[in-house]
Input
Amino acid sequence: MGIDLPLLSIVIWLPIAAGVMVLALGSERADAGKLVALIASVLAFLISVPIYTDFDTTSSAMQFVERLPWIPAFDAQYFLGVDGISMPLILLTTFMTPLVVIAGWEVIKTHPAQYFAAFLIMEGLMVGVFAALDGLLFYVFWEAMLVPMFIIIGVWGGQRRVYATVKFFLYTFLGSVFMLVALIYMYLQAGNYSILGFHQLPLNMQEQTLIFLAFLLAFAVKVPMWPVHTWLPDAHVEAPTGGSVILAAIMLKMGGYGFVRFSLPITPDASSALDWLIISLSLIAVVYIGFVALAQRDMKKLIAYSSIAHMGFVTLGFFVVFAIVENAGTPEGARLAMQGGMVQMISHGLISGALFLCVGVMYDRLHSREISDYGGVVNTMPKFAALMVLFALANAGLPGTSGFVGEFFVILGSFQANFWFAFLAATTLILGAAYTLWLVKRVIFGEVANEGVAGLTDIGGREFLVLGILAVAVLLVGLWPAPLVDAMEASLGHLLDHISRSKL
Amino acid sequence: MVVATDFVAPDLMPAVAEIVLLSAVCVVLLVDLFLPDHRRQVTYYLAMLALAVTAATIVAFGASERTLTFAGSYVADPAGDTLKLFACLAVAFAFVYSRQFLSDWQLFRGEFYVLGLFGLLGVMVMVSAHSLLTMYLGLELLSLSLYALVAFNRDSAHAAEAAMKYFVLGAIASGTLLYGISILYGTTGTLELGELGGAIAAAGQGLNLPLLLGLAFVLVGIAFKFGAVPFHMWLPDVYQGAPIPVTLYVGSAPKIAAFALTWRVLVEGLGGMQESWQDMLVVLAVLSMGIGNIVAIAQANIKRMLAYSTISHVGFILLGFLAGSDEGLSGAMFYTLTYVIMATGAFGMVIFMSRAGFEAERLEDFKGLNSRSPWFALMMLMIMFSMAGVPPLIGFYAKLAVLGPVLDAGLTWLAALAVLFSVIGAFYYLRVVWYMYFEAPAESEPLAAGSDLRFAVSLNGLALLALGLFPGGLLDLCARVLS
Output
């Protein structure tokens, strides 16, 4: 290696600086702004690639660490680093943002500069969330993200956008303020905000339970878990396509990431004692929300509910580990379940993002998200139909696509915990297939339903590029998940080892 | 040959900034008298010069350590100097913000500046007060200037009503405070804060009814000046009724004075009775945060909304005091300074949106600002999110600085309640942002603000972000000067 560049800082601050630049260019010079946005987001992705290629997969330690003093009064530091858990999520973020920029290229007419600036700033903040190893820094990134998202949904959203965005903001704000109280509490115990320090902090059962619940509220809202999921269908439906993609692909992952980075290692005993709660909520999400998805008439709403069901797998995979270790006595099954949850996060990021982009493609043409307004799209948009069917099958968990790997791992792991956990989780194979394939049948196949569909034009090069790249990624993770799984192997092993030791 | 006398000439140096300011005000007053109306700008520039000279004096002759003078009734210390500097800065910003509005509204008169500077003098006297009587003198100087300023637009019935209410209620509060002071004096035999603290320590921990009664009356006076619930009734009416430049003034420097009042009297003077006032402050803080945030949601007038928002922020400032630790005190100071910056910016934006004959005091007036001026919409967005306590803006660290000490004091429930109220409060700040960004403009009149106003608003908004990204300096400053 040559010079040691602060890669993480660059990936955080380059998009933010570019976002400020796009804002400064203003909507009068939006074309230049778009170009800046594209270059910056692609550059950020290229810069983030070495974080993967130079990543030492044999080590569970934090890598690419940057540590500078930040707020001496609170002993808070500018402390960044990645391990096998956060590295894939950072790449997912830098991978999705250029696609979102390209997807919005010609579509956004009002305040285009602000649109692209908001996404660039979001990108930097999201990478910051995954890279922060200081609790206060994490919280700052975590909350700051709400501001651009609030604007994105509110300005470029659909009919009920104001209701949706205010609900989104207040819900997530409510969730995270209690996490702040928990963070301050631990700071007072530990004397600094280092997350790694929090991992080692001895806490009694009562403290652990309260901290666990505070974190649970923050992360459960973000994931979102049933019953605090109701902001998601509203936000997703009303958000512009790019907003939905970022929400589904990355922001939801922050909830899952929070569980792995905070809840499990900081409060292992409370997590173990309350795992029944998370497992029940996850299974309700998988089964009940699956049925809810079946009943949707709005394409975006259907995908939103399917997201909740799929994220149920993530939380199930993370919290079923305690039962597995108890039953099987070995951490092997537990590792499988946890890997499943992690792979599911990446996979869901790709698939749900792709599906929202597909809906966006149709919405741009007919300005409707109603399933009943479509039918027989394959006749007029064959290229598009092929891609959408691929993503739909991946969403249903078809082997060979990324959707299969995560779900399969989690179900396999769950069997070692309890037959009924696995049984209920496996219903998703039926339910997921039912709502996704039924969606495809009604929208893509059949006779041309109306004149609107008859007049559709197939996707152009720009749209094909975006969906094509995602299709490749979905297949790649599905057929050859080894690099992804290997990258997180050491860190997950370390985490399992850590949580198997009681703090009491 | 030394002549022994009982008289010792007091050391005037600790009060040099106040003396300079007083002389400067007199000069401004006299010069203004002889100025023809079309030369009134001179008063403005002289007032700004007076502020600059005062600030320079504070910096040049600042106390490196705690110095008492005037027989212990006056104190100069680094924390006081810091507060005075911020007060000068706040008043300077208030003057810059108001210049154009006042001339547009035919209110451009020298008295505004003279009263404003006298008010600042009151603030500075309060900050340096080390005796209950000095404190009371400063308070009255400030209050009387404020009463007159609120009624400054004499053709406005609203302003007259507001001034009348403010005066009557303020007089009652001053009376209450004075009554409390008299009880404390009667019990301990001293007005000097240091001796008072000693007398209270000597009185011991047991229940001492006269002292407790004195404390309660003093606290009512403090709560009134701060605008804490249930002594907040004057605040919304005054904020709404006064011309916006005056509202801006009332909302900025006097808050620093209220902080100084609480700090000097409660923490320094009555620190021995901490257990008693802690519980009283808990009640005031919870009520202020709750009622301030909830009632603000119902407001359609932005001045009134910001008034209730002030009340809720006061609740947060009190959290810092009631924690009873050094960190809590510096947290409260940090919060006060932060609040002054935010409030100055928020009212500055209201002035920015107004023009001759039109006060942009309805929330609707902010509709579609993003389409009219993206830059200033962004500034208001930062001010609003800062007030809501969203990082990375400075308002977040202010909340953090008081929540930590509260948790440290074992009041976990109070911290949880405070953050819950801040979520409720987020709604009405969000509504301003939503009007600016998600709604179409209600009017197409070009924004008439002049370049000095534009510059000040931009500086103010960017300060919130810059301090938010690097809050360490200001936090350290507060902790250092108070130690």
